Amino acid sequence: MYLMYSFTVVRRKHLPTVSLCMLLFVIHTETYENLAFRKPAWQQHKWPGEPLDVDWGAAKVVDGKYTDRSESGNQCAISAPGQTTATWRVDLGSVVSINHIDIYYRTDNLPSPGRYFSRFAGFFLYVSNTTSKDDGHLCFHEIQNVNGTPVENQTISCSVHGRYVIYYNERRPGVTYPSYYWHEAYNELCEVEVYGCPDPKYYGVNCDQQCPVNCQGKTCDVSTGHCLGCIPGYQGLRCSQVCDVKTYGPQCSLSCGNCSDGETCHNVNGTCLQGCDEGVEAEKCQTRQFSYKQRNIKINFLTNKLAINCTCLNEITCRPGFHGKNCGQRCSHNCNVTNHCNRFTGECDGGCKPGWKMPTCQQECDGGMYGAGCTHSCGPCLDNKQCHHVNGTCLNGCSSGHQGRHCEENCTDGHFGMNCENSCTLYCGRNGSCDRITGMCDSGCIDDWRGPLCGSAEELSSCTSCTADDSIAIILSLVISVIIVITGSVVNFVIWKRNQSENPRRGLNENSKCQLETVNNSDIQSGKDRIGSPYAELTDTNQPNMYEGIHHYTEAAGKIYDEI
Question: CA-CA to 288 of 20 to 30 Å: which in 53, 335, 438, 493?
């Protein structure tokens, strides 16, 4: 801030007194620091043989003095005459954050336009990180077409980061310039002031506000705080927003791979946090992901460009024999080309081996089909069961009336039933044929034979369609018949045994508990008048007669036979 004190002596006629007035004016206020003040400077063509009392060297442009802008004022740099190019630069010592640049050209202290604007016309102004303007950022260049321009005092806004400020002008042979342009190139600079913040990580009029954390290099525009570039994964003026969906990396310019369920990838490094979708693997799940050898990386802070040169080495997808999310599923060994399938869907290359269903060849043929492509129909297997999925054989046998490996052959004449194991009865009429499923005679029975199978014995042995109640009735009849026969045999045996024991020719049983009744003691003693009958009565006459009991039992048994 510059202050000017003005003292004025006021003289008034007839008034001997003198009034002294002091006026205070603020003529210029600047809060940014002049970063070029007394910094090393250089110019291309130094004036040869400078006068001993005048210095027109490059350092005069940054000494802070420009009140006398004439050749004799010793405050300006003047380059040598007769040149086609003229270059001057100042080294700011490090990369700084620049807001604007002020230039004060030679005027010889005359009002604008002065005598030297034609030499000033057409100039270039660069900011660079090297001493070459070609590596830098062009802050200003204009071909003026109006005589009297440009004005000698210039303020050029150039919000950029850099170390060197370079002034350049040219008058190239063969190039047509406006008619008022001087024919030689000069730099006649009296002062160049570079305003900004010395630390590019801060901004604001007082350089006291820190740049946003996601700015590239932690640097930002010196006046607005807007990032000149973002770190990978972020975007926006202040780099506060993550990359849009499906993008990541520097300037959010890279596309995400095939992440699981269509999710977006990590905004910085592109990795899929929930794994890969079908057909891809590796961290980034990219369908065509290339590994590379890094050759050269160059970041230009002035142009905010990132250049990466690399050599691609190989493509990464699912390994052979794998497919699906994260390539975690194996191709089926039932593929026609074993373990070869589509890396996304798992569909087998060349179809399936016989007995397996497309597309993944993981399921056996079903629905009564078998073989290559599940295009062949099973035969009539027992209980309509599925045949073998590869060769079509009926694993549990054939249905009634069928035989053969695939149960596709009918029973031959004279046979019927499951697997054609039963023979038709001998009592079927005509040619003796019967139904191949039920066994019923095709032409009825021969004479004196009845029933669907033409004979009870044959019906019982070959019946394939009898119900459970019919079988129970037949079994009960057999059991009752056997019981009757056994009972009759026992009774006959008892009668026979009794007859044997009572026969007088074989003698009485000594151990018999029965005693013969004595009719007449005198007869026994004398042996004269013995009863003429060869049989003797038992002594216990009150008990029922044994023969009567047997007679009654025989009658009862006869009635049972009659009922049967």
Answer: 335
